[in-house]
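User: Here's a chain of 261 residues. Predict its fold as C-alpha cells.
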Amino acid sequence: PKRCKLASSPRLCRLVATKLGKDWSPQQISGWLAVTHPGEQALQVSTETIYRSLFVQTRGVLSKELTAHLRSGRTMRRPHHVGPRDKSGIVDAVSISERPAEVEDRAVPGHWEGDLLIGTVDTQVATLVERQTRYVMLVKLDTKRSEVVADALAAQVRTLPEQLRQSLTWDRGSELARHERFSLATKVDVYFCDPHSPWQRGSNENTNGLLRQYLPRGTDFSVITQAELDIIAVKLNTRPRKTLGYETPAARLAAIVASTP
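Assistant: Prediction complete.
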C-alpha cells in the first residue's frame, strides 16, 4: 500500500503535529499550509490524510495524544422561530432592525457581537466577537448584575483603538439592561436581537461553540482568572479560519489597525 505522506515527510509531519498541539483542526492546518507554502507540494496535505494519520495509520506518524486536541462535537443551529413577547424589561432598547447596513454586510470593522457563556449556577463569562475578523475577547464576570456587566464590557472595549469601537449587538438578556451606561463610557452604540433569535448573532454563537472546547458546560467559571481567559482567546485568535481564507483573526485585526492612520 501507498505510504502515508506524513510518514515520508518529517518536516510536514512536524508542522502538522505542532498545529494540532495548538488545537488547530485538520481543515485549518490543510488550508493554512496551502496559503503559507503555495507551490510547495511537499508541504501540502489534505484534511483527510491528517485524519487518517490520527485514527488509522497512527503507528509512529502522529501521536495518539494529539487526538485530544480535536473538537469532539459542534453545537446545533437553533430553529428559526418567533419566540414569545419580550419580557426582558430593557428600557430604551434599540432593535437590531435599526442597525446600519454596514454592520450587516461586514464591510466596516469595529462592529461586535456579544453574549454570556454560562457555566455552573451563577458563573458566566462575557464573549465579544468582531464581525469582520472574528476576533474574540473574553471578559471575566463575578455576577450578572447589569451595572457590573456594563462596566466590565466597557473596560474591555476601551482597550481597543477608536476605529474598532463602532457598535455592539447583544442578546435580549437583562444582563445588559444598563446598556446606556456602557454606551456612555465607550461611545459604542448597542443593538438588541429579537427575542429568542440567537442566529442574529451568528459569529458570536459559532465562537461560543468553539469556546466550549476550553470552557465546557458545567464548568465553574468563578475559579478561572482573566489571565486564563486571555490565553484561551489567543488560541482562538491565532487559529486560521476557513471563512477568512485561512488567515487568522489576529492577523486580520492587526492589518486593520496597521492600515489606519
